[in-house]
Design goal:
The complex is a heterodimer of chains A (about 110) and B (about 110). Helix content of chain A is about 0%, strand content about 50%. Chain A is built from no helices and 11 strands. Chain B has no helices and 12 strands. Chain B has strands at about 5, 10-15, 20, 25, 30-40, 45-50, 55-60, 65-70, 75-80, 85-95, 100-105, 110-114. Chain B is globular, with a radius of gyration of 14 Å. The model of chain B has no long low-confidence stretch (mean pLDDT about 95). Classes of the chains: A mainly beta (about 110), B mainly beta (about 110). The interface of A and B includes residues 56, 96 and 108 of A.
Chain lengths: ~110, ~110
């Protein structure tokens, strides 16, 4: 049973460009959350997708957007990249069914903005 | 507001010595607590978790953590540290009242002296 997968593993972009990161949730999961981990910090919640809609959002600008597809996979898009967007981007999936639904994290995509 | 604090930014211990990493959280509802470890350039690995029941939980790699509700703490311990334990450690709380979003602490960097 495959866990959460993310692509690409690494990515290098320049300021002002746009980037798309991809996430496939763990089999059977229907909810995808995205986190940003800047160097030397703990991960910060960006947003969460459920039933193809953004269900909640952290304190990130509108340059960060996402999408969830009918097969529950998800994309994170970042427009007008800034140097400060360089980070490890983590995807987490869960099944929204119980009292508390544990999130399972993927290996991450490391984005470098030059 | 919900938060997680890890008072120690960096800890150095000798190989074979005992270890305790501190974690305090602020959350009004039932906490779902986690400890993750991250090696340089890697993703997150779950060490252990507390959802309910016995307040002393055992994890992988010989780690354990104790939940103390009265102190809002979830400290991580290991009786004998190995050189391979050198890494970044993150305490986290899952928010049942916020669609299971995970709030991470800032992390504690562990160095091990041979």
């Amino acid at each position: 049973d495959a866990g959460v997968t993310q692509s690409p593993t690494h990515l290098i972009k320049t300021r002002g460009q746009q980037v798309t990161l991809r996430c496939s949730p763990k089999s059977g999961h229907d909810t995808v959350s995205w986190y940003q981990q800047a160097l030397g910090q703990g991960p910060q919640f960006i947003f969460q997708y459920y039933e193809e809609e953004e269900r909640q959002r952290g304190n990130f600008p509108d340059r960060f957007s996402g999408h969830q597809f009918p097969n529950y996979s998800s994309e994170l898009n970042v427009n007008a990249l800034l140097l400060g967007d360089s980070a490890l981007y983590l995807c987490a999936s869960s099944l929204s069914v119980g009292d508390y639904n544990e999130q399972f994290f993927g290996p991450g995509t490391r984005l470098t903005v030059l | 507001a919900q938060s997680v604090t890890q008072p120690d930014i960096h800890i150095t211990v000798s190989e074979g010595a005992s270890l305790e990493l501190r974690c305090n959280y602020s959350y009004g509802a039932t906490p779902y607590l986690f400890w993750y470890v991250q090696s340089p350039g890697q993703g997150l690995q779950l060490l252990l978790k507390y959802f309910s029941g016995d307040t002393l939980v055992q994890g992988i790699k010989g780690f354990e953590a104790e939940f103390k509700r009265s102190q809002s703490s979830f400290n991580l311990r290991k009786p004998s540290v190995h050189w391979s334990d050198a890494a970044e450690y993150f305490c986290a709380v899952g928010l049942k009242t916020s669609y299971d979003k995970v709030i991470f602490g800032p992390g504690t960097s562990l160095s091990v002296i041979p």
